[in-house]
Amino acid sequence: xxxxxCGDRGRRSRWGGDAGAVGGIEALPFGxxxxxxxxxxVTNLWAVVDAKLAVDAAARQATRRYVEADVAGPGGTARAxxxxxxxxxxxxxxxxxxxxxxxxxxxxxxxTGGRTGYSRCAxxxxxxxxxxxxxxxxxxxxxxxxxxxxxxxxxLVDPYRSGVPGSATACx
Amino acid sequence: xxxxxxxxxxxxxxxxxxxxDMALVHLRHRQAHDLAAAAANDAAGAAADPAALRAGAHRPxxxxxxxxxxxxxxxxxxxxxxxGAPVVRVRGDQVEVEIRVExxxxxxxxxxxAPDGTxxxxxxxxxxxxxxxx
Lengths: 172, 134
Fold this sequence. Notes:
The structure holds 2 protein chains of 2 kinds. Chain A is an alpha+beta fold. Chain A has 3 helices and 5 strands, in the order αααβββββ. Chain B has a 3-stranded antiparallel beta sheet with strand order 1-2-3, with helices on one face.
């Protein structure tokens, strides 16, 4: 009888008051929430930085391929552009990126000395874009439309290279 | 003791933020190097001295090399972040381009007294040589 009485009193004291409560426990969910939100922010920023490196490399590879391409024969410049786009997408793939989320395109081809199209000294500019998902989870994939990262690179078609019609003297 | 948990998580986030800022500087350095390499390559090719070429010598013209490098940098995506004019040096058949680019931090700016960014320098060179056909 007396023992039961003692047990009731013990239970009351454990659940009824503040005795035994751990100070600062309410900070735990706040800390974890801060950590989760912060970790998501940092990983998303890192994904954008990494994608920027990849699209820059893709634009550079595409441009290099284009200005050094063999354009002799019918459809030579169109073939050079296709090959350049394929080289850019391959560079993105080599960076571990999904080429279906990317675009690589010839955005500008400015000739000099009144010439147009693929000519000596023409400045070719390729632009590569990649859509970074808003949230990436390892092994599962990305969610959300996210942000579009763009890289641009331009180079001159070598004025003294072979296989391009015209003369280098018109380059000015 | 439990109060140390949010503090520890905050320390992890601060370290991650520093990592992201350093990655941004690395990215800018890569971009600056790509731009310097493209400018040097274009300058070496487009600035070849025609008179010297006819004589069989492969020598870029310094004034043209500088003009071409400036055009390449001005047409670049990084043009707004380039500090000063690119430095172009021609030594024999080689063109060297040096550029300085601003790199902005994302997180360090919120720390009072910390710099908002830094300047990275990249240097690249290209050599004018005859192709396989001469």
